[in-house]
Amino acid sequence: MKVIDHINQAKDTLVSFEVLPPLKGKTINSLYHHLDPLMEFKPPFINVTYHRSESIFKKKTDGTFEKVEIRKRPGTVGICAAIMNHYQVDAVPHLICGGFTKRETEDALIDLSFLGIDNVLVLRGDAQKNESTFEPEVNGNRYAIDLLKQVKNMNNGIYLEEDIRDGFRTNFCTAVAGYPEKHFEAPNLESDLKYLKAKVDEGAEYVVTQMFFDNAKYFEFVDKCRANGINVPIIPGLKPIYNKKQLTVIPSIFHVDIPSELLNEMNKAKSDQDCEKIGEEWLIYQSKELKKAGVPVLHYYTLGKPKIIYNAVKEVF
Ligand code: FAD
Fold this sequence. Notes:
This protein is α/β, with parallel strands linked by helices.
């Protein structure tokens, strides 16, 4: 079932989770172990992130280095199918431009469609670790909107091969990312909103936000989206902070601010348990306020401490 239909049919705020594929070498049971307790909250859908390969330099026996491509977390498509089968819920694979030619994307979409996956979160992806800016593959998609157009074309039976006329119409519900604190490359929020609107005008049916720790930023973002004619549901993405290291790591990776109140409380904490408690309380406070405001879904990034998410959701739902 499409996520947009879950949202439209819901009478109250829904809850959903996002998971990462297990590291290569681990079994899918590690993921089930992570998700099992959270299934008590009956999420209608679960997102699975996509991780492109990284280039690393491996030292050879003769002392020279060899560049090799490795994927630490493969398996997004298979995991989506496994989750749907194991838990009888919908799965939303993240699909990125980076590392894919359009033809490879087309084949991936065919696989997803054959597996009965109705939803995709369409993203650009980040630059590779050894590159300063994002570079698409030759004959790949440059921006999320280009990938979105490809998905929409397939929903209309249009494939890359020109001799396929009126091909099988896939039926994907498409979502895109939004950034309450602006995407880090965008010169300003207005510019970022212009491109978000373009994605929605191209057919994206809902938006999932980057994590934020200050609800006011989400509310302001939604107001600005509405003022700019972006009228689809905007799902807030939430993640707990549970140690002091994250206070600097999260802003540097995700380009989001930590509110002073949370920062001060965390800095006062004397133990790891204190930090976890503060993070959990903050997540509960954020979740309660957002739910009260009637957000369509509370979407939790579960990497790290699923127990904190469990405790917070238990308190809120
Ligand atoms: P885009 O919408 O393409 O925007 C990228 C930048 O270009 C923005 O600054 C935008 O303002 C600008 N822009 C957009 N369109 C145009 C245009 N036509 N012309 C000029 N400028 C333009 N990454 C992963 O690798 N795997 C994941 O699983 C993953 N999941 C994510 C889930 C969520 C909810 C979010 C918020 C992010 C996720 N990311 C993931 C990270 C994401 O790939 C990066 O943030 C990436 O840098 C931007 O992706 P986007 O889809 O927002 O890009």
